[in-house]
Design goal:
With 142 residues, the protein is of the alpha+beta class. 33% of the residues lie in helices and 20% in strands.
Length: 142
């Protein structure tokens, strides 16, 4: 079974071929290298995944590249985490339904959150009116 390394904080110019060349120069083996890119612009997102053939090779890659300097930055290398399910995103840090809120505010924080939901919350209220001279001029023009 292969092990995956997350390699982050890469400059935008780094390609999979660059990473493969670095690995060869260090006598390290990788089954594959994938630089993650923005699907619309094809620009690098600044990180890559390296498939190592085994756990030992994965640890050797991490040891060599974690905190290695490249230009004006330090690379980050660590074992890749499995992708999160889409339902798990956004729920982290929030109390689950039916569970009490945690933290220093306790019941008061939960009560305040309940009140905000009842009145529509800050994000869902209609603006009370223009707040700047520019906004007033824009409102007049429209």
């Amino acid at each position: 079974m292969s092990s995956t390394v997350f390699l982050g904080n890469l400059p935008p110019w780094v390609t999979a071929d660059d990473i493969k060349a670095w690995l060869v120069a260090e006598n390290l083996v990788a089954d594959s290298v994938k630089v993650i890119r923005n699907p619309e612009t094809q620009e690098s997102k600044g990180f890559a995944f390296i498939e190592a053939p085994n756990e030992e090779e994965m640890m050797a890659i991490i040891k060599r590249f974690d905190r290695a300097p490249l230009e004006d930055r330090l690379l980050r290398a660590n074992p890749a985490q499995p992708p999160k399910s889409k339902g798990a995103r956004g729920a982290s840090g929030r109390a689950q339904a039916g569970q009490p809120a945690q933290g220093a505010q306790g019941a008061q924080g939960a009560q305040g959150a309940q009140e905000r939901r009842q009145r529509g919350g800050k994000k869902h209220r209609k603006p009370s009116g223009p707040t700047s001279a520019f906004a007033e001029e824009l409102a007049k023009a429209l």
